[in-house]
Amino acid sequence: MAGVKGKSGLKKGTTNNPNGRPRGSANLLGRELRDTLIGRLTKEDIINKIMDDILALQDPADRLNHLKNLYPYIFPRPLADEEKSALNTQSVLFKRLSQPDEE
Asked: Which residue stretches belong to region Disordered (predicted)?
Protein backbone atom coordinates (compact mmCIF):
# COMPACT_ATOMS: atom_id res chain seq x y z
CA MET A 1 0.00 0.00 0.00
CA ALA A 2 3.02 2.26 -0.20
CA GLY A 3 2.39 5.42 -2.12
CA VAL A 4 -1.39 5.43 -1.61
CA LYS A 5 -2.51 8.65 0.06
CA GLY A 6 -3.67 7.99 3.65
CA LYS A 7 -2.57 4.33 3.58
CA SER A 8 1.08 4.51 4.63
CA GLY A 9 2.74 2.60 7.42
CA LEU A 10 2.35 -0.95 8.62
CA LYS A 11 -0.49 -3.38 8.11
CA LYS A 12 -3.00 -3.58 10.92
CA GLY A 13 -1.74 -5.76 13.77
CA THR A 14 1.97 -5.53 12.93
CA THR A 15 4.71 -3.51 14.61
CA ASN A 16 8.35 -2.58 14.07
CA ASN A 17 9.05 -3.48 17.71
CA PRO A 18 7.45 -6.87 18.39
CA ASN A 19 8.86 -7.07 21.92
CA GLY A 20 7.73 -3.57 22.85
CA ARG A 21 7.95 -2.14 26.33
CA PRO A 22 7.64 -4.94 28.90
CA ARG A 23 4.21 -5.20 30.47
CA GLY A 24 4.06 -3.42 33.80
CA SER A 25 7.22 -1.40 33.26
CA ALA A 26 7.03 2.30 34.01
CA ASN A 27 6.68 4.81 31.23
CA LEU A 28 9.55 7.01 32.41
CA LEU A 29 8.94 9.89 30.04
CA GLY A 30 5.30 10.07 31.11
CA ARG A 31 6.22 10.02 34.79
CA GLU A 32 8.93 12.66 34.32
CA LEU A 33 6.59 14.89 32.32
CA ARG A 34 3.78 14.45 34.88
CA ASP A 35 6.12 15.27 37.78
CA THR A 36 7.42 18.36 35.98
CA LEU A 37 3.92 19.60 35.18
CA ILE A 38 2.68 18.98 38.70
CA GLY A 39 5.73 20.76 40.10
CA ARG A 40 5.13 23.78 37.93
CA LEU A 41 1.34 23.92 38.13
CA THR A 42 1.10 23.63 41.90
CA LYS A 43 3.35 26.59 42.52
CA GLU A 44 1.40 29.41 44.11
CA ASP A 45 2.64 32.04 41.65
CA ILE A 46 1.38 30.05 38.64
CA ILE A 47 -2.03 29.54 40.25
CA ASN A 48 -2.23 33.24 41.12
CA LYS A 49 -1.28 34.16 37.54
CA ILE A 50 -4.03 31.92 36.13
CA MET A 51 -6.60 33.43 38.49
CA ASP A 52 -5.42 36.99 37.72
CA ASP A 53 -5.76 36.27 33.99
CA ILE A 54 -9.26 34.89 34.42
CA LEU A 55 -10.40 37.72 36.68
CA ALA A 56 -8.97 40.28 34.23
CA LEU A 57 -11.38 39.13 31.52
CA GLN A 58 -13.87 41.87 30.69
CA ASP A 59 -16.82 39.68 29.71
CA PRO A 60 -18.50 38.21 32.84
CA ALA A 61 -19.82 35.23 30.83
CA ASP A 62 -16.33 34.45 29.54
CA ARG A 63 -14.89 34.78 33.06
CA LEU A 64 -17.58 32.47 34.45
CA ASN A 65 -16.99 29.93 31.67
CA HIS A 66 -13.26 29.75 32.45
CA LEU A 67 -13.93 29.37 36.18
CA LYS A 68 -16.54 26.69 35.44
CA ASN A 69 -13.96 24.77 33.37
CA LEU A 70 -11.52 24.78 36.30
CA TYR A 71 -14.14 23.57 38.78
CA PRO A 72 -13.68 19.79 38.14
CA TYR A 73 -9.94 20.11 38.80
CA ILE A 74 -10.48 21.84 42.12
CA PHE A 75 -13.49 20.01 43.56
CA PRO A 76 -14.15 16.30 43.01
CA ARG A 77 -17.61 15.45 41.75
CA PRO A 78 -19.84 13.56 44.17
CA LEU A 79 -20.25 9.86 43.49
CA ALA A 80 -23.63 8.43 42.60
CA ASP A 81 -24.97 5.62 44.80
CA GLU A 82 -24.16 3.03 42.13
CA GLU A 83 -20.58 4.29 41.92
CA LYS A 84 -20.19 4.18 45.70
CA SER A 85 -21.47 0.60 45.74
CA ALA A 86 -19.14 -0.44 42.91
CA LEU A 87 -16.19 1.28 44.58
CA ASN A 88 -16.95 -0.47 47.88
CA THR A 89 -17.19 -3.85 46.12
CA GLN A 90 -13.88 -3.27 44.34
CA SER A 91 -12.28 -2.21 47.60
CA VAL A 92 -13.45 -5.36 49.41
CA LEU A 93 -12.28 -7.59 46.56
CA PHE A 94 -8.91 -5.87 46.40
CA LYS A 95 -8.39 -6.27 50.16
CA ARG A 96 -9.23 -9.98 49.95
CA LEU A 97 -6.95 -10.54 46.97
CA SER A 98 -4.06 -8.59 48.44
CA GLN A 99 -4.04 -10.46 51.76
CA PRO A 100 -1.72 -13.46 51.95
CA ASP A 101 -3.40 -16.83 52.25
CA GLU A 102 -3.71 -17.94 55.85
CA GLU A 103 -3.35 -21.68 56.35
From this structure: 1-28
